[in-house]
Write a structure and sequence with these properties.
Length: about 280
């Protein structure tokens, strides 16, 4: 009616952070629904990045995780500077993630089966391997050897060896590998779980040394990036190159396992390959 004044209400926008766009199917999906599905897309099952904390919840029995070596902190032995000094970068990453470095290790239970667990988290400097990551994984392997417990390491490392620590980072490849060799000689069971991404020095060392190697669907796994390889050899790479499906076809991965099934699969493997 012309004589009636109407109160204008401000437009209500959609609160930020409720929705997320899937990089695979491009669907806009409700973030809480993604979280309920263990950070997997409800439309196409794309596996989103997952924190070390969430992987512990997904893999281990509730409340069973006992974290080790929580006081180990990285240092800047080379005084390395690129865009910003390395020591400043470490502080920024620690503030952002609430972690001292990219690895979390400890022990827990998978459906009642005791295991030693190591995880690298992509959120901290792309999960790259510095001295602290190598030291924590080595200690975890050595404790698994002493306790005669199955070992699980989940890789989320896109950065390989951390260039800011130079040779001190590269030597972690050999250090962790040597510990795994001793573990193998002692009859241990090592299950490697490769997630997106698993690249560089991590892929060239402990990530591919498991007695059984599992991978999440469509994970990027390899050493150098596909663009670098293509520019070096000047050849077209096969379709799906460096995906977990490609590696399964060519014998580098034993099984591709959806995130929702990983706990059951690991428990089954331990039962089949029981050690003690």
């Amino acid at each position: 009616m012309s004589g009636m004044s109407m109160t204008e209400r401000p437009k209500r926008g959609v609160p930020e952070g409720l929705w997320v766009r899937c990089p695979q199917c491009k669907a806009t999906v409700f973030k809480k629904e993604v979280a309920v599905r263990l950070n997997c897309c409800p439309e196409c099952e794309h596996h989103f990045p997952t924190s070390a904390h969430d992987r512990i919840v997904q893999l281990l029995d509730e409340g069973s995780f006992e974290e080790w070596d929580t006081d180990l902190r990285p240092v800047d032995p080379l005084g390395f500077v690129d865009r910003i000094p390395y020591h400043q970068r470490l502080v920024e990453e620690q503030t952002k993630t609430g972690m001292y470095d990219a690895a979390v290790t400890g022990k827990g239970f998978v459906r009642g089966r005791g295991v030693v667990l190591g995880i690298t988290d992509f959120a901290f400097m792309a999960g790259s391997m510095g001295s602290v990551v190598g030291e924590k994984l080595t200690r975890a392997v050595e404790r698994a050897t002493e306790a005669k417990m199955p070992l699980i390491i989940v890789s989320g490392s896109g950065g390989g060896a951390r260039m800011q620590e130079g040779i001190l980072s590269l030597m972690q490849m050999a250090k962790v590998s040597a510990a795994l060799a001793r573990y193998h000689q002692a009859g241990g069971l090592y299950v490697a779980i490769l997630t997106n991404p698993t690249m560089g020095g991590v892929a060239a060392s402990w990530a591919f040394q498991g007695d059984l190697t599992l991978a999440e669907p469509k994970a990027m796994i390899g050493f150098a990036g596909a663009r670098t390889i293509k520019n070096t050899i000047r050849l077209e790479l096969p379709e799906g190159f460096q995906t977990s499906e490609f590696l399964l076809k060519h014998g580098f991965v034993d099984r591709i396992v959806h995130r929702r099934d990983i706990r059951t699969e690991v428990a089954r493997i331990i039962d089949y390959c029981e050690i003690g």
